[in-house]
Amino acid sequence: MQNKNVTVFDLETTGLSPDCGDRITEIGAIKLSGNKLCGVFQTLVNPGRKIPEKIVEITGITNEMVADKPTIAQVLPLFMDFVQDDIIAAHNAKFDTSFLHYELKECGINKNFETYCTLLASRKEVKTSANFRLSTLKNHFNLKPMGAMHRALSDAYVTAQLYLKLTKNWGTDTMSQFEKEVELLMNSMDEDDIYLIDPKIN
Length: 202
Known about the structure:
40% of the residues lie in helices and 18% in strands. It is of the alpha/beta class and 202 residues long. A six-stranded mixed β-sheet has the order 5-4-1-2-3-6, with helices on both faces. The relative contact order is 0.20.
């Protein structure tokens, strides 16, 4: 696994099940090469349906914020170009991949992934955490968020750190290195747009 790039991603959605009509409202992803952050992808997505008020309260993503954003059919080809043949990782990957595979099928894109779930791995590897929610594990490992939790890129950023912890790729300078790399990337972004940044970091 260590010889292959990993795309750690998170989705925000209108609800819990794509089969019940719920749709993606945001994609955030961090690309890792070894323990280096080498790419960021983030976009809001117009879900084509109203976001329930209870979901707005959790994520902070409003119907007004997504009204003029691209549809998932417009976003997915770009996201797949970003992912390439990477391993994909997520916290509770079953949830995120259910939406991803549903939308890929809807868009006629045939894609299979090797998947790593930090939730399942944490249950095996972490013996002293009160529970295995991402927010709890963030505090347990003293991981640093990027903005508010329950936004896709911030959750992906925390999950990427957790992934490195669980796979024993976390070094003494990893956090400071991450912060420098993400600052470099974020400084070239415009808020709430599609970000497809894949710099060569030596």
